[in-house]
């Protein structure tokens, strides 16, 4: 009635082996996806001073000072405590911050975050449950943003949109140029049709 099947052992994974003509020793060929580099400040680490990162940065510990990572992402983990300013392309905040958060692209304040200070970014997301006390400036022309990121911030702004190219005019459905109805400067009198 019931049939119990034996469980098969998992098959060994295949590895590429390359042999050369000069020596017959096999060489293992590593096949891994390229990984982006990330620096991590662990939960039991405390840093006093300036951090200037040229790669993504994750902070789980305590930092007292300025964090600068202008072309990459800074992630402030649940247990992190930052006393100072943070400058990044993209910010993810889950810990406690007392200072300015300046992101040239986007800042996300997650539900476990507690932020006291000023947030300057063109795109901001505050999750339900996050605590924030301070000021928010989402103007891409903000002086602090321009000072911190200079040309970098200006190149990341959305280009101004003009619905018409130089010399173009809007056309109606027939392909003819569309013109606004003329507004007379003097009011017309109603014509009597009697």
What can you see in these coordinates?
This protein is mainly β and 194 residues long. It has a domain at 37-154. Helix content is 7%, strand content 36%. The chain has helices at 143-149, 151-156, and strands at residues 17-18, 27-28, 38-41, 46-48, 51-52, 56-59, 62-64, 67-76, 81-83, 86-93, 96-98, 101-109, 114-120, 124-126, 131-137. Strands 3, 4, 5, 6, 7, 8, 9, 10, 11, 12, 13, 14 and 15 form a 13-stranded parallel beta sheet that branches. A two-stranded antiparallel ribbon has the order 1-2. The chain is globular, with a radius of gyration of 30 Å. Residues 10-33, 156-174 and 177-188 have low confidence and may be disordered.
What's the order of the H and E elements? EEEEEEEEEEEEEEEHH
Class by SSE composition:
mainly beta
Total number of strands? 15
Shape: globular
Sheet bearing the most strands, described? Answer: 13 strands, parallel
What is the rounded distance between the termini?
A: 101 Å
Instruction: Output mean pLDDT.
Output: 75
Helical amount: under 10%
Radius of gyration: 30 Å
Strand content: 35-45%
Structure annotation, total helices: 2
- Unreliable stretches covering 5 or more consecutive residues: 10-33, 156-174, 177-188
